[in-house]
Amino acid sequence: MSQQAVYLDGDDLILRLYIQPKASRDQMVGLHGDEIKVAITAPPVDGKANAHLTKYLSKQFKVAKGQIDIEKGELGRHKQVRITAPKVVPEPIKALL
């Protein structure tokens, strides 16, 4: 498996993320080792952080929430997310491709 933070799988974009819940604002912080650090405002309880992360990523990549799939790390800070056919790739992500 690739150890890059971001890579393409056909038309899909795979992101390896390190999540920081309960942050002051939602933002992509930058690289954290071989993952992208994403700060989100939601607390890590009852799946709220995952739902919030999905919503945040859907806005960033201009896709429906259903096109974002948390493939690994549902219950942890380290996640692998698949974004199906993103319409827009934000600059910090584009720089890593």
Automatic annotation (TrEMBL):
SMART domains: DUF167 (SM01152). It comes from the Bacteria. Gene3D superfamilies: YggU-like. It holds the Pfam family DUF167. SUPFAM superfamilies: YggU-like. One of its GO terms (cellular component) is cytoplasm. InterPro entries: DUF167 (IPR003746), YggU-like_sf (IPR036591). This is UPF0235 protein C9I99_16465. It comes from Photobacterium lutimaris. The lineage of its organism: Bacteria, Pseudomonadati, Pseudomonadota, Gammaproteobacteria, Vibrionales.
